[in-house]
Amino acid sequence: xxxxxxxxxxxxxxxxxxxxxxxxxxxxxxxxxxxxxxxxxxxxxxxxxxxxxxxxxxxxxxxxxxxxxxxxxxxxxxxxxxxxxxxxxxxxxxxxxxxxxx
Amino acid sequence: xxxxxxxxxxxxxxxxxxxxxxxxxxxxxxxxxxxxxxxxxxxxxxxxxxxxxxxxxxxxxxxxxxxxxxxxxxxxxxxxxxxxxxxxxxxxxxxxxxxxxxxxxxxxxxxxxxxxxxxxxxxxxxxxxx
Amino acid sequence: xxxxxxxxxxxxxxxxxxxxxxxxxxxxxxxxxxxxxxxxxxxxxxxxxxxxxxxxxxxxxxxxxxxxxxxxxxxxxxxxxxxxxxxxxxxxxxxxxxxxxxxxxxxxxxxxxxxxxxxxxxxxxxxxxxxxxxxx
Lengths: 102, 130, 136
Prior knowledge:
The complex is a heterotrimer of chains A (102), B (130) and C (136).
Chain A: E1 3-7, H1 16-23, E2 29-32, H2 47-53, E3 58-62, H3 63-68, E4 80-83, H4 85-94, E5 97-101
Parallel strand pairs in A: 1-2, 1-5, 2-3, 3-4
Chain B: E1 3-7, H1 16-29, E2 36-39, H2 60-71, E3 74-78, H3 79-85, H4 90-96, E4 107-110, H5 113-121, E5 124-128
Parallel strand pairs in B: 1-2, 1-5, 2-3, 3-4
Chain C: E1 7-12, H1 21-32, E2 38-43, H2 67-71, E3 80-83, H3 84-89, E4 101-104, E5 110-113, E6 115-118, H4 120-128, E7 132-135
Parallel strand pairs in C: 1-2, 1-7, 2-3, 3-6
Antiparallel strand pairs in C: 4-5
């Protein structure tokens, strides 16, 4: 049993990513979408915390939202996987529930 | 799988209505069922017939109405949230003594029970909000 | 109304009155109660502020909906999980929260507290145990 968590806000504007990572359990997945993709960038103040949790939680970022914001895959924290909307759907189907951190 | 979707923010101001739309299209393309999309909070504003976005921008309401027409997706607008925000269908307008109605094709106003029912009847529920 | 009973969790992470999410979330809970599912409410992050006592909205001209929480027991919504860390981060304690109770029909209608203070790990476990998670 696992949960797909979605985060749509930048971690520099709200606490949602931080709270999400604090509640996600080992084996869960976190998908960053919309402005949430900024949480997947290397070099930011959040990067270490995100990378650390990435050891036990699968991290994903929605590619179209990354590209829209001018970020390329080269700037992602290691271990974060880009997915498209089809991949988003697959994640929803393969985890038992989806929880949005708004 | 049967996937239920909630849109809880209004069009243009938040990306939620767009993200949900692309998600639903992808889900349908992958062969999943999306029997219903429930619009709550400011999400009810997606259903207005009266929006006239710039010609070179996507028309969020038209996108959703077309999706409903093509796939039979039940687009439900919460009545309580709609009443607060001034989204009325013809019956509601008459009932409330308002001089106009503004719900677009493909959307229907109904109760919050439709959201709970969606949670009961689907295998997954995904929320797009703020 | 349905064959199986699902576990529904309503996640509240926002403060009351500054935005409508707290009020409209509660409206879903009240309507949802008629469907006889296994309902829990989670209050974490700023959501813990929704349950404080002494809310007086007269001067801001909006309806004070906090009394509605006290009616939840009558709707058989009896599990209100409040996160301890979220309270502590905000300088709140259980004493700052409303007294919300229900009558346990399995225990001679004894009055029991609906608010259950849990720590972050317990809250994570509760979330992981649900069938449907609604976030507002």
